[in-house]
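Lecture 7 notes. Example A: sequence first, then its structure tokens.
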Amino acid sequence: MPGYILPLEKLIEQFEHLPGIGHKTAVRLAFSVLEGTEEEAGAFAQAILDAKHKVVRCKVCQNLSDTEVCSVCSDPKRDRSMLCVVEDPKAVMALERVKEYNGLYHVLHGTLSPMDGIGPEQLTIRELIARLTDGEVKEILLATNPTIEGETTAVYLSKLIKPLGIRISRLAYGVPVGGDIDYADEVTLFRAIEGRRDL
């Protein structure tokens, strides 16, 4: 069976470079682009280029922004005494969708992972500590993922921040809504018990 023609093969390969995109999905996406109009393809290509050229890191929280200071950091209604530390910009988007948190954020852009060569220098930990020197932040909410790397990062940050006299809390993890307790693993159940609250 003959392969794809070279331009199509190159497009498929580009889609395959994206995380979570296998060969079949890449083929489907490539054909979808071909089936669209030239204007749609141009708009798609322009959106990619615009994102690469116009999206920057907020100079305060390190979240993605299209301005020097993001909309969260520049919002005077946000609680500046509370700082939620997350692994990546996707976590900020998820927390903002809930509409319950009104503090500020700090994005680490990863987690500590010595096996992968990721130490404190590769994350925005220096920028985080610099934000804590003026005494405005009273509580840090560590919202890293419940993975080995996320837990390691949370413990590391906790040891760095505690001497500054700032309260440190951890996002509670547990059984998801609609989940069955008998299918939950030990770590999830432990987190659910640890994060329990009064009714």
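Example B, a different protein, same format:
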Amino acid sequence: MEISPQCVVALTWTLKDTIGETLDQLDEPVEFFVGGDDLLVKIEEALMGYSAGETLDLHLEPEEAFGDYDEMLVFLEKRSHFPPELEEGMTIEGHALPGACSPEAPKDLFYTVTEIYPEHVVLDGNHPLAGIALRIHIKVVGVREANEEELENKSMGSGFFKIIPQAPGSSQLH
């Protein structure tokens, strides 16, 4: 079966920046719904017509991936607004930010704690891969028709590099 809109594809990948540093590696296949929000548009477009066993190499500019880095999404907040156990690398949902935080911080983003000072905390609402051109080597492990539930949800719940609140020190992007 070839990849087409509204099917399920199982992929593995190696993601690198333009100087060749590996940013993420997915060795075990993960299923994604094609035609929903699980994959970046540029990746879906490139995968059309591919079958299990085939590989693909893509170069994505920031605007085709996670956008340019936006300095307006970086906020300096008072340390006293956060619990003592806060650590660098933690991810906080925007709607869960303490009420005393900047009202300019969009509530629909995830914020990464990038620095902690005695009096302040730096929160970054950019995706960790924003502003970075990416090279991705993809292997199509499997392709199948989507079932009724998958067609209704238009997702396998495994979006491509979606931010998920995680424990400190976790480097998982997928």
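Note on Example B: The two ends are 25 Å apart (CA to CA). The helical segments are 41-47, 148-153.
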